[in-house]
Amino acid sequence: MIKWIAAVLGFFYMRFPGAIIGFLIGSALEVLIKNSGFTYSANTSTFQKKTRVSPGDFELNLLSLCSIVIKSDGNISQTELDYVRSYFVRAYGKERANATFKTFNEVIKHREIDAKRICAYLRMRTAYEVRLQILHFLFGIAEADGNVDKEELRQLQNIASYLHLNQRDFDSIKAMFFKSADTAYKILEIEKSATDDEVKKAYRTMVKKYHPDKLTHMDEAYQKGAREKFNKVQEAYEQIQKERGM
Question: Where are the bilayer-spanning segments (predicted)?
Fold first, then answer.
């Protein structure tokens, strides 16, 4: 990506020779960035330091975010707790999930959680696709009791912001849980006035973004969530096709 941007800039200033020089400089920068452990995020246009997060640390930080959502409406819902427990049992097995939940019970009852700090930790150690899945999971928790209230939605918006997820992606995932007349368009991140070609292009873009193969390194529960998002994209596109006779 960087080498092509540098090539375009070089062409703009020095035509063809500049494009070659820009390409070479950009290629060298990519090698330096790769060796330094930084990655470039096209979604946020920033360079980010990526270090691996251990499964245990990931679980506990994710559970901390779960506790924020569960407590946000002032009521610790058993339905929401059961949703989280079920998810972790599917991901890690009953024995490991039960051990993790001993810590979770302490966190949710007795500790104040700094969402910004936790999200900064996860942001620097997880890919953008994984953070999208985290948000999708948290929306599922909020909806588990049949209602996502304003305070829950505010906390979800804050978490998405701290995870550096862009607003269009937030609105797309939100639309998977909030039905409206233009839900299908919101899921595909386009306006209802979009042309048929724009709809097709948006669909292809969303398929690439939400394809389950991007989370094959994650546990089965997270892959299941990825498939759910992917299916929502498929359903949205099929609905628009039917409405328009495409």
Answer: 12-33
**d(Cα 135, Cα 82) in Å, to the nearest integer?**
18
CA–CA dist 100, 88 (Å, integer): 9
What lies within 8 Å, CB to CB, of 22 at 6+ separation is: 3, 6, 7, 8, 9, 10, 11
Strands (E) across the chain are located at: 38-41, 46-49
Would you say the pTM of this structure is higher than 0.70?
no
Q: Model confidence over 45-93: pLDDT tens digits?
A: 444 444 555 656 777 788 888 888 888 877 777 888 888 888 878 777 7
Rg of the chain over Cα atoms, rounded to whole angstroms, equals: 21
Pairwise CA distance, residues 143 & 156, whole Å: 12
Helix (H) or strand (E) holding 221: helix 220-244
pLDDT tens for residues 82-93?
888 888 787 777
CA distance 239 to 236: 5
Which of these, 121, 134, 130, lies nearest to 69 by C-alpha position? 134
Which residues lie across from 38 on neighbouring strands? 49
